[in-house]
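Handout, page 2. Input:
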Amino acid sequence: MTLALGLAGCDMLGIDTPEKKQADGKAIGAACRHAGRAIEDCYTLNAKGDKAAIYAGWREMDDYMRENKIEPVAPVIKPEDLLPKPKPPKPKAKPKPEAAEGGAVEGGADGAAQDEGASKRAKPTH
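Output:
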């Protein structure tokens, strides 16, 4: 009895048991069928789900909908909105400008500071 109580808390801890995975898969499959999604789309949108369980839920809902003449509900969210979007490619690093002969970079702040220092040394102060 203590073991049963201890295992009952697994759902609260977020631990997936085989029974929970099976039930989740069947619910996902049923929801996909009710939304009029093809089984292949359902697999793609739920890649981590158990495919056998998803199919079982999809098939059960299909039978139920046919028997009761229930029409699919059009999904509001498009599949492309559900799938993760690819990350944009990283921009390539721009090459650093080559130093001009003599070691100074043209037009840069370092080059301007070097020129000022040279002009101050050239003028004698009296």
